[in-house]
Structures are given as C-alpha cells and as structure tokens.
Amino acid sequence: MDALTRYRLHADAVLVLIAWWGFGNLYEAIVVMPWLWHLPPGSLPAEFEPGSPVLYFLPAGVALLTLAWTLVIRVSRDPGRSRRAVLRTAVLITISAAGTGILVSAVNPTFRDPAASVADVHSAIVMWEAGNAVRLVLAATAAVTLYRWRAHPEP
Q1: pTM score, two decimals?
Q2: From which domain of life does this come (predicted)?
C-alpha cells in the first residue's frame, strides 16, 4: 500500500477540519465582528452558552490538533517517508490554535463586559480582526502544505 492510500482518509479529515475552521474564521471576520461593532458592550454570549464562538470552535479545534499530530506520528513511523510536510502542517495549526487562545483570553472578555466602553469594544474588534487575519493565513498555508503532500507524498 502506498503512502497516498495509507494516509488519505486521515489527511482528508485534517483538511476538512482546517477548511471548517478557516471558513468559521472567515465568517467571524465578515459577519460576527461587524455585527458586534454595532451592538452595545456585553452582547457576546458567555463562553459556553449557545451562540458562543468558543462553544462552536473548541471541539473542532481539539479534534484538528489531535488528528494533525497523530498524522505526524503515523508518518514518522513509516520508514522511507518524509514527515516534513505533515509536521509543518501540524506546527502551523498549533501556532494558529495558540493564537486563538491568546485572542480569546485577551479580547473576548471585552466583548462580554457590559461596563466596557464602545471605544474599548471597537479596539478589541480591530485586534481580533488582525489576529484573525494571521490565523486565516496560517490555516490556508497548513491546508496547502498538507494538500500538496497528499497529492504527491514525499518519498
């Protein structure tokens, strides 16, 4: 069995989760943040309430990190196969996930604070959008890297 067949479903699952996460981040950039811009401070739901982005992304983020790093482990155990591309993918995803954690802890409390000023909320939105742009670039780079490896596994 060649590497393409052996890792196809695993790599496809990682690619689907990267796409899901990326489209979610794009939706935040285009819909959620402009919506929050016009709402009064304190309008974002609590972390684990329906409608919360944390509730939406957390399970998929954990699954994505787990699948990406288990793919690295699987490919590493395959003699004669380079793990460089899958390792790069997992590292990019991990950096993006860490950035998400930093953004959520630094910015989301402002969105949930009814005592925050409108200016503070607007500053937090700008910070979120900048961080989100970086996360989108990292996710796209991870997806392209893994897709190229999946299409032409390194010998």
Answers
A1: 0.88
A2: Bacteria
